[in-house]
Write a structure and sequence with these properties.
Layout lengths: L13 H24 L6 E6 L5 E6 L5 H17 L16 H34 L8 H24 L2
Antiparallel strand pairs: 1-2
């Protein structure tokens, strides 16, 4: 899309700062979960679940380190992306009249998705630890489906709101 149309200002607002702060905290939580439980984890942990929440893959506990790393990378990626709304691939043509609204909405959407995905990663990390330590029999599949539904609902809400502001 290139640069913002002339005269368009998309400064960070209070929501952006709150979302980024909550996101920074959320990005650290999986690492804290893993660190806290590391010495108690068995050498073999649950690394994959089927659609019903049953474990169908086991691996080394070192593989659990992927979740905190991915969560941190997601945080970094989304925060950086949110600072450059003119780089978003938005579904509508950007004009000087709609640029401010579209870019503000796009930034809000990116930060919402960051927080939602971090919440999902925190839950997933906690679930893997609990199942691996035999404190829980399986992953609560309906919770995972709710996370996925929320992700797609967020996308749908964004498209409707964006359409209304085109």
């Amino acid at each position: 899309m290139g640069r913002l149309p002339k005269g368009t200002s998309v400064s960070r607002n209070e929501w952006d700062l709150i979302a980024e702060t909550i996101g920074a905290i959320g990005a650290v939580i999986p690492a804290l979960i893993v660190a806290w439980h590391w010495n108690s984890l068995p050498e073999s942990i649950a690394i994959h679940f089927d659609g019903g929440g049953q474990v169908d893959g086991w691996g080394s506990r070192k593989e659990l380190l992927v979740l905190p790393i991915v969560t941190g990378l997601l945080y970094f990626m989304f925060v950086v992306l949110a600072r450059f709304p003119s780089s978003f691939n938005l579904p509508w043509t950007i004009t000087p009249e709609n640029a401010g609204k579209q870019y503000r909405l796009g930034r809000t959407f990116v930060l919402f998705m960051m927080l939602w995905m971090e919440a999902m990663m925190i839950w997933l990390c906690w679930t893997v630890v609990q199942v691996s330590m035999q404190r829980q029999e399986h992953m609560n599949a309906p919770v995972m489906y709710l996370f996925l539904l929320g992700l797609f609902a967020g996308i749908g809400v964004f498209f409707v709101a964006s359409y209304q502001r085109r």
